[in-house]
Amino acid sequence: MRYLTIALAKGRISDECTEMLESTGLNCSEMKIESRKLIFTDEKNKVKFILVKPADVPTYVEYGSSDIGIVGKDVLLEEARDLYEPLDLGFGICRMAVAGPYNLDFKSKKAYKVATKFPNISARYFSSVGMDVKIIKLSGSVELAPLIGLSDVIVDLVQTGSTLRENGLEIKEVIADISARVVVNKASMKLENKRIIDIIERLQSVVKRS
Ligand SMILES: Nc1ncnc2c1ncn2[C@@H]1O[C@H](COP(=O)(O)OP(=O)(O)OP(=O)(O)O)[C@@H](O)[C@H]1O
Ligand SMILES: O=P(O)(O)OC[C@H]1O[C@H](OP(=O)(O)OP(=O)(O)O)[C@H](O)[C@@H]1O
């Protein structure tokens, strides 16, 4: 039996990911130990886990280097890869939103400058509402951009709203609800259907219980 490979997003969602996988009976406990190791093997279940940057999870899965991936919906919307997305895991919950200063009249629909880590999501959203915008790609601390005149608004993730509030910004429009999702390579779903469906069903039963 060949190993199935599961790509996990490093960072914010990785702990909840490993906990959920562990509660399905898979063994990835080694991943919780602080180390620089990026690949882990569950010999009993013939599964390998790889730890990659969130934005790279869809790439590994689309090319078949991983059969399964677990990653935020924000990354899936931004990367728009050709994958199956069979399951919402119900954690990593936040929203993708347009935000700007309290005094900005967003409804005036003028030609805004938009700072964001998500240029594709932003371009699609503003085109769908018929607004002509200039998109400025940043890598983080996006809330800073309107404060120092780099942009008029931002498109970013909002969870508690603290980052917006503490920088004098508010949500103008919500673009999408975000949470961690399971994705599957299309060929793997055919070739390893039974094993992959088994993992999805086990994850699904843990999601229902939580
Ligand atoms: N404030 C937040 N609240 C809840 N979930 C979030 C929040 N910010 C990000 N996420 C979710 O967690 C995932 C990982 O976020 P994380 O901050 O670890 O990575 P990143 O900063 O997007 O990636 P990179 O390390 O490449 O910069 C995101 O893709 C998103 O789905
Ligand atoms: O609504 P909140 O609970 O304040 O969370 C939202 C913040 O969390 C994320 O940033 P992150 O911490 O990943 O840092 P970043 O700016 O480097 O992306 C996101 O980009 C927001 O800035």
TrEMBL record:
GO term, biological process aspect, one: L-histidine biosynthetic process
Major localization listed first in the record, in broad terms: cytoplasm
Gene3D superfamilies registered for this protein in UniProt: Periplasmic binding protein-like II
GO cellular component: cytoplasm
Cytoplasm listed as a keyword: yes
Domain ATP phosphoribosyltransferase catalytic: 53-204
Reactions this protein catalyses: 1-(5-phospho-beta-D-ribosyl)-ATP + diphosphate = 5-phospho-alpha-D-ribose 1-diphosphate + ATP
Similarity comment: Belongs to the ATP phosphoribosyltransferase family. Short subfamily.
Assembly: Heteromultimer composed of HisG and HisZ subunits.
Free-text comment on this protein's domains from its UniProt entry: Lacks the C-terminal regulatory region which is replaced by HisZ.
Protein name: ATP phosphoribosyltransferase
Organism: Oxobacter pfennigii
Upper classification of the organism: Bacteria, Bacillati, Bacillota, Clostridia, Eubacteriales
